[in-house]
Each structure stands twice: as structure tokens, then as C-alpha cells.
Amino acid sequence: MTITIVGAGPGGLALARILHLNGLEAVVYERDASREARGQGGMLDLHTGTGQRALRLAGLIDGFRAIARGAGQDMRLLEADGTLLLREDTPDDAPFDRPEVDRADLRALLLDSIPADTVRWGHAVAHAEDGRLCFTDGGTATYDLLVGADGADSRIRPLLTDIRPVYTGQHSIELGIPEVDRTHPELAEMIGRGNFWVFGDRQALVVQRNGDGRARVYANFYSSPDTAESWFATREIPLGDPAAVKARLIDLYAGWDARLLALIAACDDTVRTRSATTLPAGLTWPSKPGVTLLGDAAHLMRGAGEGANTALLDGALLGLALAAHPDDFPTAVSEYECEMFERTAAAARMSADMYEKLAAPDAAQRLLAFFRGD
């Protein structure tokens, strides 16, 4: 029987890997034209009980350790005036509890672990019907089991629920400093080796190190859940003109420490925007033979570092359920969904609580109390 996965992200590829290990082949349809078609974004911190657990089940933990960065667990937390509230430096022999890994490296690890013809590149799904996928180029494909691993704007989700994502109120502009150690050593020293977080009144600057030497700089704003179009328009951010975007951001961060504004000024002309959306915590649906969801398609959470971790574990556990019931997909899907609903509802509630801290006027102090266990 045909197992069809839509989306070659971490969750979809973890599922394909587990199925392959258990002698069950699948086809993965991915809208990207190739594995090199676009950048995969910044870093992920994979947790021992979720993302790393999934990679152990997939037989990939040694490969993960080879590409992970233990130093990425370092953290610095500051207030907008430059006051350092918390600094955590990871010893070289520290356990890999939450190491950082480049998204591109993780995707390559997963892709290289399955047969090359598993992923059908350049297949963007327009919509799904019972038993049939319809692609944007007019093509179609049939399936016996369909797994939506296609993220926030899932084309598969409507087969199971009418619920749609809503805006959270977080809007981000991603910039970046290439080869920061060489081009701006003073900023590299300030940032450190891992995560650099600065919070003001419903604003943040977050910096992540990438393995290629790039420092990704995220300008985050927390407001009412406006649409993406209205938020960027009302803040008069001139998208399409990188120099003007940086100048406008420096205006919006007026009053912040000059060293922090220097981070924005040092960025190159790469500008990406994102307006975060979420699904209700604890979303469920009646189990339907022949279709299910994983990752953001199933439980899109407010950003708190759980999304990729839960997606990886979803994929691994669904794969194991299918391997345990290779001739009874409905039973496998029902068992998977029962466990997934309970597990991810708790993660979604935790993510929502963390988001409330990030979006508060006194976010820096709230995070300091959280990390200290107060």
C-alpha cells in the first residue's frame, strides 16, 4: 500500500527514515525544486527527550553528534540598555542536552539516510481529496495513507479539521552578519558562541551563530495579532530596500544601547520577514482512516523551540506505529494520534506560557526568573 508524505522537513523525513528501516517504503512530495533550492534557515536546539530521541530511534544519533555544536548551548541575556543579566558558557565536556545544529545540516543528515528516489522534488500540492493529491502543475497522485508534514499552511489539514492558524502578534525581520568573527570581531565577542537575547518593551534582538560563520540577527516585535500586511505597513518598514529597512529598524530601537544598534548596522542586504501563526493548543480531530498530520501541520505552536523537536518525534513515533501494524494503517494512525494529541498539547501549553513571557513589557526579567528557576 502507498504511504505518501507531503513535506520534506524534519518530521516528514524522520518518518520516511523510520519506515525505510522497517522495510516500509514511502514517497515524499516536496515543493522545493531540489535539496539545494533554498536556504533552510538558522539553528535548531534539539532536546534529549524529543528531537534527539527521534534521531536515536532513526539510528542517526552518531551522525547528529558529528554535526551538532555543543557551544551553541551558550546563552547571554541582556536588557535593552546593555545590562547583562545572565551568561551561561558551556564547558567543552558538557553533555549534549540541547546542542545547536544548522537546519541545513540536519536536513542533509536525514535526506542521506533514505533512498535517493524517496523524495519527489518540485511537487507543490494545491489541495488533497480522499485518495488523491492534486499538484499545482495539474498532476495528481493516489495514496492509501496520506501524511501531512507540510507545515503551518498545510494543504492536508483541511481533510481533518476546519481550524485554521491565526496570527500570534509576533513579527520578525531576519538580517545577518556574514563571517562575523572576521568582519566584526568586537560584535562576535559580544554575541558569544551561542544564543544572544536582548529584550526591551515588547521588542527583542535575538542573535544565533551558524556553523558557516554567519550571525543571524532577528528583530522581533510583539503586538496585537495584526495581519502581516498591516503590521509591516503601519510600522512603515520599507521592504524591498535593505538599507532603508536597517535604518528604519535603528529608529524603532531608539534608546537601546549603541552596541546593540551596531548589530543591525553591520548586517548585509539579506532581509527576510515572518509573521508567526499558531493553532489552538490541544487541537484534535476524529481519527480518519487514510490521513493524518504531524509537526506544524498538526500542532503549530507559538515559537519557543519546540516545533522541530516535536515534529521529529511525531515522525519517528508514527513510523514505529506503522511498522507495528503494516497491514492495518487505521489502527496505526489511531494509536499514533492518541499519543501525539496528549504529548503535543502539553508542549503547546508550555510554548504559549513561554510566549507570554517573551511578549511582556518586562520580558528580560521574566526570562531571568525562568532560567534561574524562580
Automatic annotation (TrEMBL):
GO terms for biological process: response to antibiotic. Keywords: Cytoplasm, FAD, Flavoprotein, Monooxygenase, NADP, Nucleotide-binding, Oxidoreductase. FAD binds at D45, R103, D296. Pfam families: FAD_binding_3. Residues 3-325 form the FAD-binding domain. It is found in: Cytoplasm. Its cofactor is FAD. It is an enzyme of class 1 (oxidoreductase). GO terms for molecular function: FAD binding; monooxygenase activity. Its EC number is 1.14.13.-. Consists of an N-terminal FAD-binding domain with a Rossman fold and a C-terminal substrate-binding domain. An FAD-requiring monooxygenase active on some tetracycline antibiotic derivatives, which leads to their inactivation. Hydroxylates carbon 11a of tetracycline and some analogs. Signal peptide: none annotated. InterPro entries: FAD-bd, FAD/NAD-bd_sf, TetX_monooxygenase. It catalyses: a tetracycline + NADPH + O2 + H(+) = an 11a-hydroxytetracycline + NADP(+) + H2O. Monomer. This is Flavin-dependent monooxygenase. GO terms for cellular component: cytoplasm. NADPH binds at R38. Belongs to the aromatic-ring hydroxylase family. TetX subfamily.
